[in-house]
């Protein structure tokens, strides 16, 4: 804005300077013209008097030289008289620095040109010569010419003084005009400058900027209008921020996963729900094509179907996420703008895993429990009937059947106990008995308990740890149950002459327990399901060993109750490795 003020002031000063210079030139020329007119009138009067004097005294050939010289001195002029042909008849004398040849030339020029004016100004370096001439008549005819020559250095001095006075006067006027112009431009441009600055701040998004009130009626409306505009923009900005905050809070905390893509398939929005569900980073998704970053083929197919059909699509998906399988109710919604302009696709993921689990649990619980109880009950009933039919009289048969009945009843009791334990673990009132204990001692105790079982199958059971103590906080009995289940399973699914290695790793705030076997392994697609209730990788083997299918489900719940996590790595035919990570301190 200072540039605008400077340009405006410069333009005003330029106009003032041009006007004043023009005025100075005009006044100087008027003064010079007036001075010359006055001087010419004087010379004309003197030449008239001298010509009358010469005519009355007999003409140019009868003049009294002495009298003419006296008149020349009295008038402070040089008098020259010529005949009709221009021959110099009389010269009153040489004036200082005057060249007689130059005078003759000027006289001859006057006689040749016969100008209407009877005066002539010849400008020189040091002074000017002024010529005035008059024809001398005798008997009504021209007899010769009278020339009066005078130096006019006074004219030049007076002219320079006038120019000096005019210059000083105009300079003072210019200074006054510059001061007034600066005040005027400042007064009128300052409100405009303030309005411009506020407009720039508004353009930058600073809606709190305001213009100070001014007394100029010419700019007060502009200031008021901009202030009203700024206030309206500020209110609109606040309302938009509130609306944006509400929308962001809704999107981030709606409990569902959102994925927004533009019309080209680039991902523009991913909310916290989606990140938490699929355990991804937003930086790896934003501004990327959906089929380049989304690993689940089912999700990509839904997006492609929405792009192709431009219709809403709803599907139920079962997706493996880590060691779990989760159910999702997925909505694919096309975004159509004004005039049917294609904007993109919105995907909404509702995690219905728990609902599905409850539905499946209700269906499977009775089926699984009845199926698991059916075998031992059938065995007990069948062998009991056989004994009642007379087999009890045979001592060997009696002992064999009673042994089977006892084994089946133990299996039934184990199943019922696991169901009771699992029910307690899932109840909200379930609490851990947290205490400090030696984890190394606990695992060593479990290995000692299961060593006989391992040796019966010719399996090497080993504990690897660099030290002989590792204290953590947790529920001693529950963690003992966890390791008994894991190591028992490892022994169960490991063929003879195999290995089961239990390794401990001590970190700064956590510990990791690896239970690795060289057993049959687990198929990749079965890994997410092994922690489900009643799920068995090898049903025949687990049933023959008395397994209930609840062991790993109990292990997972107990580990999560300790705020830990369990992961599985397995290759079919090569073995499996269960990794449990626990915190050293529960606080």
Strand order of the largest sheet: 2-1-5-4-3
What is the arithmetic mean of pLDDT? 78
Given helix and strand content, the structural type is alpha+beta
The helix count comes to 14
User: Could you estimate the helical fraction of the residues in percent?
Assistant: 40-55%
**Strand proportion:** 15-25%
Note the gap between the termini: 64 Å
Task: Write the topology of this structure.
Layout: H1 2-56, H2 65-75, E1 78-83, E2 88-91, H3 100-113, E3 119-123, E4 128-138, E5 141-151, H4 153-204, H5 217-252, E6 257-262, E7 267-270, H6 272-278, H7 290-293, H8 297-309, E8 313-321, E9 324-336, E10 342-351, H9 353-388, H10 395-426, E11 434-438, H11 439-456, E12 460-464, E13 471-475, H12 476-492, E14 499-506, E15 510-517, H13 539-544, H14 551-561, E16 565-571, E17 575-583
Parallel strand pairs: 12-14
Antiparallel strand pairs: 1-2, 1-5, 3-4, 4-5, 6-7, 6-10, 8-9, 9-10, 11-13, 14-15, 15-17, 16-17
Helix pairs in contact: 1-4, 4-5, 9-10, 10-14, 11-12, 12-14
């Amino acid at each position: 804005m200072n540039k605008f003020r400077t340009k405006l002031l410069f333009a005003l000063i330029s106009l003032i300077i041009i006007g004043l210079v023009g005025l100075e030139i005009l006044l100087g020329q008027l003064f010079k013209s007036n001075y010359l007119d006055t001087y010419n009138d004087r010379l004309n009067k003197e030449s008239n008097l001298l010509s009358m004097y010469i005519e009355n005294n007999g003409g140019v050939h009868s003049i009294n030289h002495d009298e003419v010289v006296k008149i020349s001195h009295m008038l402070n002029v040089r008098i020259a008289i010529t005949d009709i042909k221009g021959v110099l008849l009389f010269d009153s004398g040489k004036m200082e620095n005057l060249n007689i040849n130059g005078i003759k030339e000027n006289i001859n020029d006057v006689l040749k040109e016969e100008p209407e004016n009877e005066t002539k100004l010849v400008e020189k370096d040091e002074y000017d010569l002024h010529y005035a001439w008059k024809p001398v008549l005798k008997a009504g005819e021209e007899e010769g010419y009278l020339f009066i020559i005078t130096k006019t250095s006074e004219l030049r001095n007076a002219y320079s003084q006038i120019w000096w006075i005019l210059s000083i006067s105009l300079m003072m006027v210019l200074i006054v005009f510059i001061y007034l112009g600066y005040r005027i431009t400042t007064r009128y441009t300052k409100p405009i400058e303030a309005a411009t600055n506020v407009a720039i701040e508004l353009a930058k998004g600073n809606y709190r900027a305001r213009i100070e009130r001014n007394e100029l009626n010419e700019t007060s409306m502009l200031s008021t209008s901009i202030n009203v505009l700024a206030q309206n923009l500020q209110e609109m900005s606040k309302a938009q921020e509130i609306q944006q905050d509400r929308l962001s809070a809704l999107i981030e905390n709606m409990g569902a996963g959102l994925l927004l893509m533009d019309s080209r398939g680039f991902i523009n929005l991913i909310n916290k729900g989606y990140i938490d569900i699929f355990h991804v980073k937003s930086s790896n998704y934003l501004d990327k094509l959906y089929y380049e970053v989304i690993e689940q083929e089912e999700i990509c197919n839904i997006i492609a179907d929405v792009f192709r059909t431009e219709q809403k699509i709803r599907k139920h998906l079962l997706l493996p996420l880590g060691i779990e399988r989760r159910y999702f109710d997925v909505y694919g919604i096309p975004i159509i703008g004004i005039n049917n302009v294609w904007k993109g696709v919105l995907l909404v993921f509702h995690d219905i895993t728990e609902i599905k689990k409850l539905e499946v649990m209700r269906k499977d619980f009775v089926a699984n429990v009845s199926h698991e109880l059916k075998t031992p009950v059938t065995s007990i009933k069948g062998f009991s009937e056989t004994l009642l039919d007379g087999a009890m009289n045979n001592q060997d048969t009696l002992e064999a059947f009673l042994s089977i009945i006892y084994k089946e009843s133990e299996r039934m009791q184990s199943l019922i106990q696991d169901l009771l334990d699992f029910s307690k673990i899932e109840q909200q009132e379930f609490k851990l008995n947290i205490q400090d204990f030696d984890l190394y001692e606990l695992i060593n105790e479990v290995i000692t308990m299961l060593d006989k079982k391992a040796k019966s199958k010719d399996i090497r059971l080993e504990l690897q740890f660099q030290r002989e103590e590792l204290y953590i906080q947790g529920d001693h009995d529950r963690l003992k149950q966890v390791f008994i289940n894991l190591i028992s399973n490892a022994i169960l699914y490991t063929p003879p002459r195999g290995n089961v290695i239990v390794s401990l790793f001590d970190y700064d705030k956590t510990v990791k327990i690896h239970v690795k076997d060289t057993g049959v392994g687990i198929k990749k697609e079965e890994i997410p399901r092994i922690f489900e209730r009643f799920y068995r990788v090898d049903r025949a083997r687990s049933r023959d060993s008395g397994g209930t299918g609840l062991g790993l489900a109990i292990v997972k719940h107990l580990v999560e109750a300790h705020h830990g996590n369990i992961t599985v790595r397995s290759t079919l035919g090569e073995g499996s490795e269960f990794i449990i990570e626990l915190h050293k301190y529960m606080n």
